[in-house]
Amino acid sequence: MTQVSEIAYKVRSKNAGPFWVTVDIFCGTPEAFARLREGLKTETVAALYHQPTQLLKRFDIADLNVIKFSFPRPVIQGHRSDRDMHGAQWATLLAEMRL
Amino acid sequence: MPTRVLIPSGVLCLGFDREALARGVAMKPDLIAIDGGSTDSGPWSLGAGQSKYARSVTKSEWRELMLARAEAGVPLVIGTAGTCGADACVDWMFDITQELATELGQSVKVARLYSGQPAARITQALAAGRVKPLTPAPEISSDRLDQMTNIVALAGAEQIQAALNTGADIIIAGRTTDTAIIAALPLMRGDHAGAAWHGAKVAECGALCSTNPTSGVILVDFDETGFTVEPLATGASCTPHSVSAHMLYENSDPFILYEPGGHLDVTETRYLALDARRTRATGSRWVPGRYTVKLEGARAAGFQTTLIAVLRDAHYVANAQAWADKLHGFLDALIAKRMGLDPASYDLDFRLIGVNAALGAMENRSAAPVEVGVLLIITAQTQALAAEIGKLANPHLLHYPLTENEELPTFAFPYSPAQSDRGALYEFALNHVLELDDPMSAFRLTVTEVSP
After folding, report:
1. What is the pLDDT, as a whole number, of residue B305?
2. What is the pLDDT of residues B78-118, one digit of tens each?
3. Does B347 lie in the same domain as B263?
């Protein structure tokens, strides 16, 4: 069992406007990209963020060795129950996910 | 006609490299453009109509840009002035500009572009079917629109061009798209439309598209076939990777970017390193579409009071969640008894710092922390009510025991009084677009000659 952060060199997340959040996985090399593209199942990532799979947009970008997931924020940015105004800590869940 | 745009940094108040700015001015740009905000930090700025940045920092950085403008002899544009670009923030930035003109002895023509929308205009457009929801969109109605403290529309290139056409030295724009202030001039001068929008997107965060993200200053050359981007700080580089990767940033789709009047598509873009510092991009496409502008709105959703207690006792640390749940039930009962309030009319939210304060139900790790911070956020219909609930909760947050028959515990309060009133809680209430026949019909332009 290897953590995603041990394969990718950087995982980051951020709001994409107040209504969306986006997670970028910078794999660094074509080998790491291939491994994570196979290893990261969209359903598993959706479950990690408690989201229905069909809401996740996924981009596998070979030119950049990047895998990107975007989904509507379950809580709109700044709503009283929002816990992370910038959505930047959400990346940790994916970084710590074990394959 | 080739167009050179100098971008001092990703946003006014984040600082920039002075030497790099001077280098940029010496390279004879056609325009200096800087962003003044975004929705990044949340709904407060738009809700309250105030800048989130310190006036002193805003003024000191704007002073340097006004000096750079005078030296370069080209227009200086700020978009989304005062963080949210509400009309009050445009006027706040105008006041600062007037003060500086006096202090610097500058005579300048200042154009103010207002993006604020009266609720009645949006209500009318909604009834006419000209307000369309994006995904996901909050419910709107004429009542809800009336409750919003500020509604702004994001100006595009056309409105910035109208401001440039006044011959203004300085343009203070309300809410605009981040890209419009940079793309407007190259588009006006007939440069490649795809390149204009794409180059603007790459440069709008300043040096974030380079290998040295904090260095600030970026220069973009636009022409009839593409754009070239160059960082001006020594040691920074714009590589094909750093430039293309920037399309990922804060974008839900890394290939498509919607703007007023169409969208940018970078699927076929080719990136070429001209040398170690500069990257050129060609093949970006602009796809014209209906003329719509995005709307943003904020409304007050109650008032808040917060309290923080710190649990250090190991037994309480180990049982923090159970303790908070039990205390929550106790407080609801007490609020009903003492204040006659139904739990539906207020909200108590316990955040356990050290347990799951950042991720809530998504948190999947657990460990034994040394201490747990208990942040209690109270939301009620008025500040007085939230404050009253805070005072009611105070002694119990301090002393509430896990079990009966134990000596009353006393937790750590970091300050006195333990409760702090936060004022209004604002929330974003629009994720819609407004269709326009005439781009200027929802925007207002005022031109003033400012002298020392």
Report:
1. 98
2. 999 999 999 999 999 999 999 999 999 999 999 999 999 99
3. no
Q: How many domains does chain A have?
A: 1
Rounded distance between C-alpha atoms, residue B32 and residue B9, angstroms: 10
* CATH at residue B397: 3.30.70
Q: Residue B140 falls within a domain, yes or no?
A: no
Nearest to A16 among B44, B250, B428 (CB): B250
- The answer to which of B211-225, B264-278, B330-344 has the lowest mean pLDDT is B211-225
Shared domain for B190 and B320, answered yes or no, is no
Give strand pairing partners of B380: B303
Q: Which DSSP helix (H) or strand (E) runs through B74? A: none
Instruction: Look up the ipTM and state it.
Output: 0.96
Distance CA B150, CA B37 (A): 15
- Inter-chain residue contact B359 with A83, CB threshold 8 Å: yes
Distances (CA, A) of B208 to A62, B21, B89, B211, B245: 22, 16, 26, 8, 10
Q: What does pTM read for this prediction? A: 0.96
Q: Which residues of B touch A48 (CB under 8 A)?
A: 362, 364
A-B C-beta contacts closer than 8 Å? 100
- The two tokens of residue A5 are 């952060």
B397 backbone dihedrals φ, ψ, rounded to 5°: -65, -30
Under the banding of pLDDT at 50, 70 and 90, the label for residue B204 is very high
User: Is position B102 within any domain?
Assistant: yes
Candidates A77, A80, A85; CA nearest to B378 is: A80
Do B264 and B335 lie in a common domain? no
Domain extent at residue B308:
300-429
User: What's the structural domain count of chain B?
Assistant: 2
B90 occurs within a structural domain: yes
- Structural domain range at position A62: 4-95
Closest among B253, B65, B87, B257 to B170, alpha carbons compared: B65
